[in-house]
């Protein structure tokens, strides 16, 4: 988490333009009476857009006033979310993802490019064109390493392609958004490796899964059921567990006496016996005669 402080130099005042004021009133009207604070993020965002990409302190106060919120509450929102810039940014504001997948794919080398061409984080170049900030995952991990510049993603970057990209932006030349290696979206490098059977896409196998069931011989449920299942466990303990289960399942609710099998691990001997008789409830005959 980076330290987020308001800029030392602030404008004297902030006011929405007529268009933005009208838009802001529309946002506030979306919420029921007493819930106007819900519009805080859209209003802060619009104020930031109007103010050249960063949020001055007077704008925070103005939004608090419009929403009837304590200034500190709006300040908390503005300082918590990195989507709000509290200091001036360059015309091309680079947000560089430094989270693990991007770091493993070379984000640190991209940081070196930023330091070389721009300087430290939050520093705006003298021409006002570039500034950068390291941020957490931007959700394009499969195209790592990547950066967001203003509203666009630039992916599959190398130090060379990133440096060229920044130079092009600075010079006002057209640039390509998305993957810089030409792959489509986040398709795998080197071509597809799965779901490559063309019949999956020509409709010829639609519904074929049903034949597995219709072709199955009827009346052979037992064989079908047991197909592929492991053999019943033949260990003595398993037999005991099965007998106990049978006993519980008696329709009259009375348990059969289960056979017990004890194994002496020291001698290796196995003893087979009968479980103790369940005592009958008062006034009821014993469940089984004789032992
Ligand atoms: S880790 Fe960089 S976009 Fe997700």
TrEMBL record:
<dbReference type="GO" id="GO:0031090">
    <property type="term" value="C:organelle membrane"/>
</dbReference>
<dbReference type="InterPro" id="IPR002023">
    <property type="entry name" value="NuoE-like"/>
</dbReference>
<dbReference type="InterPro" id="IPR042128">
    <property type="entry name" value="NuoE_dom"/>
</dbReference>
<dbReference type="GO" id="GO:0098796">
    <property type="term" value="C:membrane protein complex"/>
</dbReference>
<comment type="similarity">
    <text>Belongs to the complex I 24 kDa subunit family.</text>
</comment>
<dbReference type="GO" id="GO:0098662">
    <property type="term" value="P:inorganic cation transmembrane transport"/>
</dbReference>
<dbReference type="Pfam" id="PF01257">
    <property type="entry name" value="2Fe-2S_thioredx"/>
</dbReference>
<dbReference type="GO" id="GO:0008324">
    <property type="term" value="F:monoatomic cation transmembrane transporter activity"/>
</dbReference>
<dbReference type="GO" id="GO:0022804">
    <property type="term" value="F:active transmembrane transporter activity"/>
</dbReference>
<keyword id="KW-0520">NAD</keyword>
<feature type="region of interest" description="Disordered">
    <location>
        <begin position="210"/>
        <end position="291"/>
    </location>
</feature>
<dbReference type="GO" id="GO:0031967">
    <property type="term" value="C:organelle envelope"/>
</dbReference>
<keyword id="KW-0411">Iron-sulfur</keyword>
<dbReference type="InterPro" id="IPR041921">
    <property type="entry name" value="NuoE_N"/>
</dbReference>
<dbReference type="InterPro" id="IPR036249">
    <property type="entry name" value="Thioredoxin-like_sf"/>
</dbReference>
<keyword id="KW-0479">Metal-binding</keyword>
<dbReference type="GO" id="GO:1902494">
    <property type="term" value="C:catalytic complex"/>
</dbReference>
<protein>
    <recommendedName>
        <fullName>NADH-quinone oxidoreductase subunit NuoE</fullName>
    </recommendedName>
</protein>
<keyword id="KW-0001">2Fe-2S</keyword>
<keyword id="KW-0408">Iron</keyword>
<feature type="region of interest" description="Disordered">
    <location>
        <begin position="175"/>
        <end position="197"/>
    </location>
</feature>
<dbReference type="GO" id="GO:0003954">
    <property type="term" value="F:NADH dehydrogenase activity"/>
</dbReference>
<dbReference type="GO" id="GO:0022890">
    <property type="term" value="F:inorganic cation transmembrane transporter activity"/>
</dbReference>
<feature type="compositionally biased region" description="Polar residues">
    <location>
        <begin position="260"/>
        <end position="273"/>
    </location>
</feature>
<dbReference type="GO" id="GO:0051537">
    <property type="term" value="F:2 iron, 2 sulfur cluster binding"/>
</dbReference>
<keyword id="KW-1278">Translocase</keyword>
<dbReference type="GO" id="GO:0046872">
    <property type="term" value="F:metal ion binding"/>
</dbReference>
């Amino acid at each position: 988490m980076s330290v987020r402080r308001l800029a030392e130099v602030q404008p004297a005042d902030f006011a929405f333009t007529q268009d933005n004021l009208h838009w802001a009133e529309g946002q506030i009207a979306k919420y029921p009476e007493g819930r106007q604070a819900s519009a805080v993020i859209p209003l802060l965002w619009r104020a930031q857009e109007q103010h050249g990409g960063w949020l001055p302190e007077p704008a925070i106060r103005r939004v608090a006033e419009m929403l009837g919120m304590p200034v500190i509450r709006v300040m908390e929102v503005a300082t918590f979310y990195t989507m709000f810039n509290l200091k001036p940014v360059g015309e091309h504001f680079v947000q560089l993802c430094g989270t693990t997948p991007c770091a493993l794919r070379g984000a640190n080398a991209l940081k070196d490019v930023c330091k070389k061409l721009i300087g430290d984080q939050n520093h705006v170049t003298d021409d006002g064109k570039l500034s950068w900030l390291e941020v957490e995952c931007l959700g394009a991990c499969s195209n790592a390493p990547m950066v967001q510049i203003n509203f666009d993603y630039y992916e599959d970057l190398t130090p060379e392609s990133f440096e060229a990209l920044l130079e092009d932006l600075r010079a006002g030349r057209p640039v390509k958004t998305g993957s810089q290696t030409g792959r489509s979206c986040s398709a795998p490098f080197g071509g597809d490796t799965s779901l490559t059977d063309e019949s999956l896409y020509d409709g010829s196998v639609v519904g074929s899964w049903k034949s597995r069931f219709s072709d199955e011989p009827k009346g052979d449920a037992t064989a079908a059921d047991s197909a592929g299942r492991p053999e019943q466990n033949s260990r003595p303990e398993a037999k005991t567990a099965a007998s106990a289960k049978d006993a519980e399942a008696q329709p009259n609710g009375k348990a059969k006496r289960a056979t017990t099998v004890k194994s002496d691990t020291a001698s290796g001997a196995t003893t087979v016996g009968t479980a103790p008789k369940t005592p009958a409830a008062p006034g009821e005959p014993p469940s089984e005669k004789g032992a």
